[in-house]
Amino acid sequence: MIDQQLPKISSENRYSYLVVTEDCHCIELSQCAAGTLGYDPSIVSPDSLFGIHTNILAITNAKKILKAVSSVISDKKERLFAVWIKYSTNVWYKVLCRCSAENNHSVHIILVDVTDIDPRAIWLSRINLATQRMDLGPEYSNRTVSFLEYAVLHFLIRGTTYKNIAAMMNISSNTVSFRIKQLKQAFSVNSVGALLQETHDNKLIHMLTIDLNVSNPAMTDFHLYSLVD
């Protein structure tokens, strides 16, 4: 569930903005941006973009923001990119940033909370890194699949053969078959075709855009969300 302190995308409250100098000193901040960035809304001119008044715990590519500000001032070309922001609620939100030149010394940044329209957001929130398992949610009676089972599904959706999946994961073809059986039980389907259709219908297929390294899986949420950028 999206934290109520963050602005929702709606016709009357779609954008938030701030204006920063080349050293990211904030010189103008909308009330909506204050909410998006986790500032106390009563503080309209914080000392810096990442000041002490924020409840932000992490930004996946904060360096990219700093680089974008510098680049926009230098060449006056607009930059558009997304970041994932983690707040003190320990929940991550996706924010789209558009940086454009305000003048020769400052940059106008528009922020849009797009968490609700990224189909990966729900699935990412269901990953338990401590146990290396994914909760499938109430629609599947909160059954879980392991990282290794998900890895098989990841390759299967890409059309990889059982033999090649086995080679890529350094396991036997029988193990691949066993994990697919576990996946079918978890998703309450009876065939591989139905399993693939299910991943399409529940939007798990969108997780294919995230790089998967079987030998070096993400062990922290920051690492995980950094892969999603």
Question: What does this entry look like structurally?
Answer:
This protein has a 6-stranded antiparallel beta sheet, sandwiched between helices. The two termini are 21 Å apart. Helix 4 crosses helix 6 and helix 5 crosses helix 6. The longest helix has 14 residues. It has 229 residues and is α+β, with helices and mostly antiparallel strands. The chain is 34% helix and 21% strand.
Fold blueprint:
Elements: E1 16-21, E2 26-29, H1 31-37, E3 56-59, H2 62-75, E4 79-87, E5 92-101, E6 106-113, H3 120-125, E7 127-128, E8 133-135, E9 144-146, H4 147-157, H5 162-169, H6 173-186, H7 192-201, H8 221-228
Antiparallel strand pairs: 1-2, 1-6, 3-4, 4-5, 5-6, 7-8, 8-9
Helix pairs in contact: 4-6, 5-6
Short structural description:
Helix content is 34%, strand content 21%. It is of the alpha+beta class and 229 residues long.
Fraction of residues in H or I helices: 25-40%
Order of the strands making up the biggest sheet: 2-1-6-5-4-3
How would you sum up the major sheet? Answer: 6 strands, antiparallel
Uncertain stretches: 1-14
Instruction: Calculate the terminal CA-CA distance, rounded to whole Å.
Output: 21 Å
Approximate shape = elongated
Strand content: 15-25%
Rounded Rg: 21 Å
Order of helices and strands: EEHEHEEEHEEEHHHHH
User: What is the average per-residue confidence, as pLDDT, rounded to a whole number?
Assistant: 85
Q: What is the number of beta strands? A: 9
Structural class: alpha+beta
Number of helices: 8
Features:
3-stranded antiparallel β-sheet, elongated, single chain, 9 strands, disordered N terminus, alpha+beta, 229 residues, 6-stranded antiparallel β-sheet
